[in-house]
Specification:
InterPro entries: MCP_dom_sf, MCP_transmembrane, SLC25A32-like. The chain contains 12 helices and no strands. With about 350 residues, the protein is mostly helical.
Amino acid sequence: MSDALINGLAGAGGGIIAQLITFPLQTVNTRQQIDRDPKKEMRKLGTVEQICQVVKQEGWGRLYGGLAPSLIGTATSQGVYYYFYQIFRNKAEATALELKKKGAGDGSVGMLSSLVVAALSGCVNVLLTNPIWVVVTRMQTHTKKSQLNRTASLSSDEVILATAEPPPYGTSNAVQELYDEGGVLGFWKGVFPTLIMVSNPSIQFMLYETFLKKLKRRRASSSKGSNDVTALEIFLLGALAKLGATVITYPLLVVKSRLQAKQIAGGDKRHQYRGTLDAILKMIRYEGFNGFYKGMGTKIVQSVLAAAVLFMVKEELVKGSRWLLTRGAVNSVKSKPL
């Protein structure tokens, strides 16, 4: 099994576990990001209070709206990302060693190269998985109220049927809704800011690799001479790297969520976005720069926790896989007749 495939599968496993743990926070954060009313009472509520409010008004199930496609998206996204990241990383390391032989550099991958590797991996990931995340955003931001808003254009009999008991809003409903609004291209809504958002994992991995390299060097130069890193240290390094990346790129995440959320036809023109630039200009005009940081506290808690769990689980899975493969190879050699 190739190193790239091991990292891809481990990343997918780590991503699924992190997503299961932090999904309610992600749902609340997405709702915070698309909140356009500066006077809305929900803005004054804390994250825990908002979670309780969603449970009280809509039930526990709404906190996990879109969980199924999200888990598929996470497994696919993390798998794709780590697979291509390892491939590009291996090429960068080979290039660095070649340059060292020619007398240039120390043979290690620098910060700029790490940034390029992460960015390329992120672009491949975004282009392949954006449709899944558009569906997830729709399901996370769907509420009973938004479902009833569509009855304005129905006949009186249809309104009675629609308002009596709204049918469950599932993955197929979100897919059909997106297709009706924009056809196949509707599944790539927000792809431009999302492509720019690859700077988030790029910055994250650049910081993570830098911190990890420094820690290993310090550990190797100590009296023990070992560069082993514990799961807790990986957890903390992942959290620190994600914190820095999230603070820098959060405004782009808000713009992406605004574009991917359902826009009510005939609604307030201030909330109708024709594209990325239009969304940015309208947010600045009607909400000020504070609009770009709605829900950032919740996002920091969710993303930092998710990233820390992902890194820790992924590294442990990689170690375990390599140990099993090595053990299998040794047993295979021992079992061969002399």
